[in-house]
Each structure stands twice: as C-alpha cells, then as structure tokens.
Amino acid sequence: MYVCLCRGITDNQIRKAVQAGKTEFKQLKQSLEVGTQCGKCVRMAMEIIAAEVDKM
Ligand code: FES
Questions:
Q1: Distance separating alpha carbons of residues 48 and 50, to the nearest angstrom
Q2: How far apart, in Å, do the first and last CA atoms of the chain sit?
C-alpha cells in the first residue's frame, strides 16, 4: 500500500529500509524522500517504523 503518495513510497519499501538499518525517520527521509513534500504521510511512516523496530 502507498504510504507517501507524493513520492510513491509503499509500506514495503519503508519496512525493507528499516530492516536494512534505517530505523530513524530522518534516515528514511534522506534515502527514500518519504515525507519531503506535503508531509501528510509522516505520521503513518513513523508508525510503520515503530512497528518494524518492535519486531527486531
Ligand atoms: Fe508523503 Fe506527501 S504523501 S510527502
């Protein structure tokens, strides 16, 4: 599912990035550019990060 419509970023892309060590939103923002336009996706992206980190 798309999390960031502005940048076309899916939840799977975010999960994979977290698994690869990008556990901070700032890191995801730099690598995937998630949340760099309207910002509406930031909250959901952070929830996905937190859920993924919890599984680690
Ligand atoms: Fe992610 Fe707009 S939906 S920046």
A1: 5
A2: 22
Separation of CA 2 and ligand 1 centre (Å): 10
ipTM above threshold 0.85: yes
Atom 3 in ligand 1: residue holding the nearest Cα: 4
Cβ(43) – ligand 1 distance below 6 Å:
no
Distance 28 CA to ligand 1 centre (A): 13
Q: State pLDDT tens for residues 25-49.
A: 999 999 999 999 999 999 999 999 9
Which helix (H) or strand (E) segment is 9 a member of? strand 9-10
Q: CA-CA distance, 37 to 54, in Å (whole number)?
A: 27
